[in-house]
């Protein structure tokens, strides 16, 4: 038994931490669901020209999440300081030194990229063709990513799988933000808001809100465990035996690992296909090649990074990609923002404070189009069109899905410590908010431009961008993707385009085209349009990098090494991982080339699959000691299986929607079933073995130093951690006072992985 003093420290720490998490989540849920529930009432009030209800959901709630995580980190670190008797916890000197070096490198990189953009602007001014500028953007960015991949190449397992576990929080936050802000966010988010108006804010509320769950409920504990992959944690947490009818006793952790890997593959491959699809859209537009060819050519940059350096190369490439994508996203919005003069703001570059007047102008133009006969009916942009249950169901699924995506969670395996993991989540959300705070403004500016300068205009004066994007099937006029005025006239069955005014229903713009088309819609210089293409490419490739790595690592480490050949050398495992990277990339490209559903829907499916398959097993595995292997297996099969069945049935089988709930929120059915199955089966079967309970206790323990403990207590702690290391097959202890014998044992365990 542990000494009384240590036991009190442990219980006090866990009790206070648990209460803090409950308090934070209650506040989080109240704001996340309370403010949207009151949107109709609060929209009647105005703030800086904004309808208050819309502004609360678009700007206030995401900012509140960030503030909530800052409070959580501060209080949690105070609890940890109490365990240290007020002594500060100091990060490793190597991490601080790396942080300083990376800061200098990426400041220089940012300056170089800005200079490159200015140079291309000069080339445009002196008459260089637009397509040449677009090609230079794509080639430069792909070349930079490939160069980082070559510079970060490695043959070490910890570098390949978890970037050496020494990535500083701020840079891991940037890498996570780039990993997160996929083609769905960069290419599809503003387009979804453009198309759906208020209802599209469910994506912003859900995706940003999920990071509160990541920080409070899951990420710190996975980092403390110290695994390479999410299936690795689930297999180690859910050990147990089952006696077969013939009397044979079998270990079932392999079944849990296999199912967790299947869940990972289902959600990650769907997500990956969406990124490859958006890559094809961007490359085909700005280089002028066929979409199917563009899809495969875009994989070059991805494979350079993933193949050579694994997680290490992907991490530092994603930091570089974040710099590009956030500059590319905010610059056009700022340019459009400075042209606004709505009575509240004039030439204000802070876009998320400016577009209130734009929203009011949209509402007025909607009424005007009906009066002029340009539309028979216009659904108000600022008002909810979905049922509240649909809005809340999608928000909930996106939140839980965010906290369950393997390629996001594995980013927090790369930090130096548990505290760094928590801080990294907060940095991640902060960097993500820069884009998500801009997306509603982006959509509003584009909406007003189209309503004012396209709808109601004669066919003969349609802007060139309508035809440019018609060539790749992203715009249509009168039901046809047109490439010239004559084709538009023919499509609308008019003898002449001079006297026919384009109606609202005549023009269709793909949600996936809105961001890359907006600079052209707003009449900005082509260099800005090329910059946006580079940002969209960075967003798609950064997420594709992380997803490819998550899939290949799971197959090579969790399936091949753990279940097929546990004696495989590290060289052989890395080779298999790299081969799988290529195979999976080609499969995703082939799927994307078939042009499946729009990007955002594909991504939403991935979130529901991850939520129903991973979240119950992860949360109960950390927060409920009684959860066992049989329960986890039942939970994954029932929850994930039901979600997948509903998705396939409604998308491809012609099923009616259950209760009218869209299939993008399919986890609203599978998630509670997964929790219920896990809990019920766990209670009906034997509790977890003692070594698993010891592992759970270790996840909840605060790792105190040995200075305040007796020799007997130190010996008890050492024995507990040695048992845990043997259970996991890798080092999970961060205690510096372990004996030389324990250190040798852990080192041998690492070498065997």
TrEMBL record:
One GO MF term: transmembrane transporter activity
Transmembrane segments: 20-40, 52-75, 96-120, 132-151, 171-195, 201-222, 255-274, 286-307, 319-339, 391-413, 425-445, 528-555, 575-593, 599-624, 631-652, 664-686
Compartment(s) where it occurs, according to its Swiss-Prot or TrEMBL record: Membrane
Location of the Sodium symporter small subunit domain: 12-80
Membrane topology (UniProt): Multi-pass membrane protein
Predominant location category: membrane
Ranges of biased composition (kind: Low complexity): 735-753
Family, as annotated: Belongs to the sodium:solute symporter (SSF) (TC 2.A.21) family.
Identification of the protein by name: Sodium symporter small subunit domain-containing protein
């Amino acid at each position: 038994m542990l000494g009384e003093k240590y036991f009190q420290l442990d219980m006090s720490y866990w009790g206070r931490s648990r209460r803090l998490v409950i308090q934070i989540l209650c506040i989080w849920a109240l704001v996340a669901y309370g403010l949207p529930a009151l949107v109709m009432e609060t929209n009647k009030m105005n703030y800086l020209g904004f309808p208050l209800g819309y502004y609360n959901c678009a700007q206030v709630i995401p900012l509140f999440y960030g503030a909530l995580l800052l409070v959580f980190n501060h209080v949690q670190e105070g609890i940890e300081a109490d365990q240290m008797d007020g002594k500060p916890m100091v990060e490793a000197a190597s991490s601080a030194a790396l942080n300083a070096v990376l800061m200098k490198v990426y400041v220089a990189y940012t300056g170089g990229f800005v200079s490159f953009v200015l140079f291309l602007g000069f080339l445009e001014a002196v008459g260089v063709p637009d397509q040449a500028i677009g090609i230079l953007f794509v080639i430069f960015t792909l070349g930079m990513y490939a160069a980082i991949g070559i510079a970060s190449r490695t043959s070490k397992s910890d570098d390949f799988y978890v970037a050496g576990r020494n990535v500083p929080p701020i840079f891991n936050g940037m890498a996570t933000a780039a990993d997160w802000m996929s083609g769905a966010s960069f290419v599809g988010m503003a387009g979804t808001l453009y198309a759906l108006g208020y209802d599209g804010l469910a994506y912003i509320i859900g995706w940003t809100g999920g990071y509160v769950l990541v920080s409070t409920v899951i990420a710190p504990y996975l980092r403390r465990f110290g695994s390479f992959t999410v299936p690795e944690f689930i297999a180690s947490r859910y050990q147990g035996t089952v006696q077969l009818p013939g009397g044979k006793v079998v270990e079932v952790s392999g079944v849990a690992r296999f199912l967790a890997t299947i869940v990972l593959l289902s959600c990650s491959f769907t997500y990956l296909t969406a990124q490859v699809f958006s890559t094809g859209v961007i490359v085909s537009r700005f280089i002028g090649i066929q979409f199917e060819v563009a899809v495969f050519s875009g994989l070059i940059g991805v494979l350079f990074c993933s193949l050579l350096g694994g997680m290490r190369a992907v991490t530092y490439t994603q930091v570089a990609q974040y710099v590009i994508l956030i500059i590319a996203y905010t610059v056009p919005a700022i340019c459009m923002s400075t042209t606004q003069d709505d009575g509240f703001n004039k030439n204000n570059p802070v876009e998320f404070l400016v577009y209130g007047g734009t929203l009011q102008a949209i509402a007025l133009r909607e009424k005007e189009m009906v009066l002029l006969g340009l539309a028979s009916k216009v659904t108000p942009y600022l008002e909810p069109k979905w049922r509240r249950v649909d809005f809340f169901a999608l928000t909930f699924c996106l939140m839980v899905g965010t906290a369950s995506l393997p390629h996001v969670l594995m980013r927090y395996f790369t930090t130096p410590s548990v505290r760094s993991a928590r801080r990294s989540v907060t940095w991640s959300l902060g960097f993500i908010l820069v884009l998500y705070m801009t997306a509603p403004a982006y959509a509003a500016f584009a909406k007003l431009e189209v309503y004012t300068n396209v709808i109601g205009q004669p066919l003969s004066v349609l802007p060139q961008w309508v035809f440019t994007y018609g060539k790749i099937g992203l715009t249509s006029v009168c039901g046809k993707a047109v490439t010239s005025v004559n084709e538009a006239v023919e499509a609308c069955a008019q003898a002449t385009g001079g006297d026919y005014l384009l109606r609202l229903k005549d023009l269709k713009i793909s949600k996936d085209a809105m961001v890359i088309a907006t600079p052209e819609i707003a009449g900005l210089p082509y260099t800005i349009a090329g910059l946006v293409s580079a940002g969209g490419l960075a967003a798609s490739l950064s997420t594709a990098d992380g997803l490819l790595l998550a899939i290949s690592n799971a197959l090579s480490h969790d399936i091949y090494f753990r279940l097929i050949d546990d004696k495989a050398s590290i060289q052989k495992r890395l080779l298999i991982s790299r081969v799988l990277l290529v195979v999976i990339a080609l499969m995703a490209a082939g799927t994307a080339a078939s042009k499946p559903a729009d990007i955002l829907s594909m991504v939403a499916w991935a979130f529901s699959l991850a939520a129903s398959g991973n979240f119950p097993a992860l949360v109960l595995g950390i927060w409920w000691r009684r959860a066992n292997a049989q329960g986890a297996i039942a939970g994954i099969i029932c929850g994930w299986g039901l979600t997948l069945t509903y998705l396939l049935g409604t998308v491809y089988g012609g099923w009616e929607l259950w209760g009218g709930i869209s299939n993008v929120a399919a986890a609203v059915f599978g998630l509670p079933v997964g929790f219920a199955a896990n809990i019920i089966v766990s209670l009906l079967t034997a509790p977890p073995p003692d070594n698993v309970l010891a592992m759970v206790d270790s996840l909840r323990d605060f790792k105190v130093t040995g200075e305040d403990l007796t020799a007997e207590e130190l010996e008890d702690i050492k024995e507990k951690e040695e048992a845990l290391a043997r259970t996991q097959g890798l080092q999970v202890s961060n205690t510096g006072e372990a004996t030389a014998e324990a250190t040798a044992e852990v080192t041998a365990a690492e070498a065997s992985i």
